[in-house]
């Protein structure tokens, strides 16, 4: 496959960026998108140019580091992470635009790399449980109804990639925050911080500069782990309940 790549290049947060065009040839349809970028970078290095900076880690669809907007879609045309997107999703001769996440709360560090530490601060605001440390308790020591366990596990699948923010027209982090709130609040271990958790995490989310949620639904469509849109309404109920109790 021969492709034309239009890649966002930006040397630092304080320097304006622009799209740069590159030709890559000999791309196998079985390559992942990141392997294709590796091929581009090898060619750039051999040509004495600076390689394109992009985030990656596990390359197994687990860590969420591979955050790219491809032809306007978070993680590309398939509902998966960028590292699990293969070049068979494109055609020979295609022109592909590759950009970083676009959100005020995700400032560009360099090229396709953005600072997502705002997500870390949201989790730090309340994403924990105050349970004693020590040996693991028996599995049956704290009974959890299966619907609650399934609900918690569904939300715990969030990998914090930020695709929901990148896809949202408002740059909202409601889907991410709701996933982190719900998977703890539904379990008995999360009960002691149930009210404070949702209030603190939502407050921190607002302070970080994320946009407001208008339930456009793009977040759930782009989520590679399938976090459902009703997660947001579940968190809203938790927030109203906690706010009333605090007053």
Contiguous helical run count: 8
So, the CATH homologous superfamily of the largest domain? Alpha-helical ferredoxin
Please give the domain count: 2
Assign a percent range to the helix content: 25-40%
Please report which band the strand proportion falls in: under 5%, 5-15%, 15-25%, 25-35%, 35-45% or over 45%.
Answer: 5-15%
- Biggest beta sheet summary: 5 strands, mixed
Helix-and-strand structural type: alpha+beta
Q: CATH class of the largest domain, please?
A: Mainly Alpha
Low-pLDDT residue spans = none
- Write down the CATH topology of the largest domain: Fumarate Reductase Iron-sulfur Protein, Chain B, domain 2
Which second-level CATH architecture of the largest domain applies? Orthogonal Bundle
Radius of gyration: 20 Å
Average predicted confidence as pLDDT: 94
Q: What topology, given as strand order, has the largest sheet?
A: 2-1-5-3-4
Shape: elongated
SSE run: EEHEEEEEHHHHHHH
Distance between the termini: 62 Å
